[in-house]
Amino acid sequence: MIGWVDASAGASGDMLLGALVGAGVPVDALDRAVAAVAPEGVRLTQQRVTRNGFAATEVDVHVADSSTHRTWRDVRALLDAADLPGGVADRAHAAFERLARAEAAVHGTSPDDVHFHEVGALDAIADVVGVCAGLEQLGLDALVVSPVAVGSGRVSGAHGDMPVPPPAVTELLRGVPSTAGPGGDRAGELCTPTGAALLTSSATTYGPQPGMTVERVGVGAGRRDPRSHANVLRLLVGTPAPVAVPDGRPGAPLLLETNVDDLDPRLWPDVVAALMAAGAADAWLTPILMKKGRPAHTLAVLVTAETAPAVRAEVFRQTSTIGLRQSPVGKVALERRMTTVSVDGRPVRVKMALSDGVVVNVQPEYDDVAALARSTGRPAKEVLADAVVASRDLMPLPPLPDPAAAAQAR
After folding, report:
1. Report field, pTM of the whole predicted structure over 0.70
2. What pLDDT, on the 0 to 100 scale, is given for residue 407?
């Protein structure tokens, strides 16, 4: 499953909550997660509303009266002590940490000592934990986010009169596509720091709606109902659409590529292993020289349309890249079969390649060869040689020469 967030009218925690509930996540599931973290009474309710004529879901956060201003250290302690599923806790940690780092950069202080003000209040804890619980329940393999509308003009906040987008939002959206959005010069604040932190900590990539078969649509309402536009955030959930390629075959292989010059090379073996575990058909590195003479690597990954979202997400998670090239590729593949041969009385798998039903190549599986070498104490090269000899019996014998034809040729 993949998701696409349409943030063309802005983003906030309550808009994301509404979109998740509208897309089918039970509000009770979000309420339970929030109650596990909040130190004081918090309750979530939902209602159907309209925004500029469009139906949407509004989730209200009902909190006890509290004037507590918590630091990231305080919020982290609440998350650590809460009985939350690991995935929800990890998402919430990531979102709050992004908030803390952005606020620290803006105010010139340490992330642990940032006083979140309204962000540390109960309603913001409810927004962050509730959204993280909803995303975890959806179990998306990838989440694509549109360019984020941030608004324009000026607003009043805890630090007085500020420009829009506020400094914390600007910091959170570094490297992320954004736009002023609808509403003209007086749009006001369309993206809150909480919304920006949740989107940027959850997105696997950014852009227009990907090719997908939409199964569920959630429309989350913001608090205001301006005349200029529908103040809503949409969440589309579905399955990746088959990718059509020039020869018309659906589901043909896709090649994902990216050039990386700032990743510790010791990490590459683990990166490739993670991509294979995520569903890649193959992955490899090519040393290159980039601009300004920088040594780098091109990471290439072969995927299908079905595995592409999960593999793309893993590339962004495991490496330092911020973009990928994607192109359909043609492929000619021989028929493959697996069999076994006996070496030292133990089985070794052999991969056979066939062309028109005839075996044209055989290759022992090296993992089996290495395992047998370790268990017997024999050198791997000797075990491999024995496996190659045993595999030759799987190849057809070449035809015997025809004496009459040979004589005629002479």
Report:
1. no
2. 63
